[in-house]
Automatic annotation (TrEMBL):
Residues 209-314 form the CdaR GGDEF-like domain. Residues 46-189 form the RsbT co-antagonist protein RsbRD N-terminal domain. Residues 367-421 form the PucR C-terminal helix-turn-helix domain. This is Helix-turn-helix domain-containing protein. The lineage of its organism: Bacteria, Bacillati, Actinomycetota, Actinomycetes, Mycobacteriales. Belongs to the CdaR family. It comes from Mycobacterium deserti.
């Protein structure tokens, strides 16, 4: 998404706005003000701006690492460029910020409202002015600068920052608007807009032309395959293999963030276990984590299966490693989803039921693993085979677990089984 362009050739395809000269005072900044720019820590300032922009302008993207990377690169480039202008190393007319304009393209792609983008720039430049003014005041006090000279320096610094702000914000607005309008005209982004409206229950009945653009039958039985680490391009390629493996009639790819995607697969018939196993095999072979919603029919089912995949993803992401499966189905973690809605209550339940077995020790973990295998497979022999242990070792461990619990395993079998399943999730949440 970077703009592979020669700064000297930028006017060939995108005319950049000329700086506005809003003030009559065109005197340059005093030499001592330009020199103080050399000692100004712009990276520390950039960290402050990043935090403010994420909390104020982009709260919904705060946990998207890729978005944060673009934002960070944009803000750091902006802050360093402003320092060069203040230091007299660069004139405003020569300012061209490739990373800043690239970030504008990213925002357009993600359909971030322009008001959020504009707010981020107001926050950024206010923070810059605030920091530079404080730095200037400190130097004025330390050097006992004459009052009139100090007032002039503050005036010219403010003019420089505000002039820079207007020039950069105008470039960004033009880039954002151009790319946003181009995306609106493209078939892929029209499809994204339709999906977004459907998920918000704002789409209504699709017209024949809209249905043709969507190219996905909303009346079929859907499953949503959430790919939390796969970007849209790679997910589109993977969807071809998924569709072939399960012989489904329809597929639809939709990016949730820059680095996560959902693939809906639609069939006329039921989603049988053998079909889902074929789906899992493709995902495992591809080596990507995934969560799968249950099958549901119609437009309500289209929304429901994604909601289930999102719920299952919270469990998969919290699952303690290395025991976590790479592919998780909603139907298999319904109990965990229900009980993990309140992690604090879940932790109290686990500690109450497991007692000493809830400890963060190698022995406790070994006993929990044996306990869970015994419940899961129903016999010492099967549990021993799964754990690759001798049957007597399994018996000894289960006996030790009973001693620590203070009662037989059969006395609270269901509670112990649930607590052991929750324990691995709580460890993943607390370590993550």
């Amino acid at each position: 998404m970077t703009l592979d362009r020669d700064p000297d050739a930028q006017s060939a395809d995108i005319p950049m706005p000329a700086p506005l000269h809003l003030w009559r005072d065109e005197r340059p900044l005093p030499d001592w003000v330009q020199q103080l720019a050399e000692e100004f820590d712009v990276d520390e300032l950039a960290d402050v701006i990043i935090g403010r922009c994420l909390s104020i302008a982009f709260p919904n993207q705060a946990h998207d690492d890729e978005f944060r990377g673009y934002l960070t690169a944009s803000i750091r480039a902006n802050a360093r460029c402003l320092r060069s202008v203040i230091a007299g190393e660069l004139v405003l007319e020569d300012v061209y910020l490739e990373q800043v304009l690239s970030f504008a393209k990213v925002q357009a792609q993600l359909r971030i409202p322009q008001k959020a983008m504009q707010r981020s720039y107001r926050v950024s430049f206010f923070t810059m002015w605030e920091a530079w003014s404080a730095h200037l005041r400190q130097v004025i006090a330390e050097r006992d600068i004459d009052r009139d000279e100090a007032a002039l320096a503050q005036q010219l610094l403010t003019q420089t920052i505000l002039g820079y702000q207007d020039f950069v914000a105008s470039q960004v607005a033009e880039t954002y608007t151009r790319d946003y309008e181009a995306l609106n005209r493209s078939r892929a982004h029209m499809r994204r807009g339709m999906v977004r409206d459907i998920l918000r229950d704002e789409g209504g009945v699709l017209s024949a032309s809209d249905a043709a653009i969507l190219s996905y039958d909303l009346t079929s039985r859907h499953i949503a395959v959430l790919l939390p680490t796969v970007a849209e391009g790679a997910a589109t390629q993977l969807a071809v293999g998924l569709r072939a493996a399960v012989s489904c009639q329809h597929s639809l790819v939709y990016p949730l963030t820059l680095s996560s995607t959902v693939v809906w697969l639609g069939r006329i018939g039921e989603w049988k276990r053998t079909v889902l196993e074929a789906l899992d095999a493709v995902l495992v072979e591809a080596g990507v984590p995934a969560t799968v919603g249950d099958s549901h029919a119609g437009i309500d089912g289209f929304r429901a299966t994604l909601a289930e995949a999102l719920d299952a993803e919270r469990i998969r992401a919290a699952w303690d490693r290395p025991s976590a499966p790479s592919v998780v189905h909603h139907r298999d973690v319904g109990l965990e989803i229900l009980l993990m809605r309140d992690p604090s209550q879940a932790r109290q339940f686990v500690e109450r039921e497991l007692g000493a077995l809830a400890g963060d020790t190698v022995e406790a973990a070994r006993l929990r693993e044996t306990l869970e295998a015994s419940f899961r497979f129903g016999s010492h022999v099967a549990a021993a085979e799964h754990l690759q242990l001798h049957e007597h070792t399994v018996r000894n461990r289960l006996h030790k677990a009973e001693e620590l619990l203070g009662h037989s395993l059969s006395e609270r079998r269901t509670e112990l089984q649930v607590a052991a399943r929750l324990m691995r999730l709580l460890q993943g949440v607390e370590r993550g």
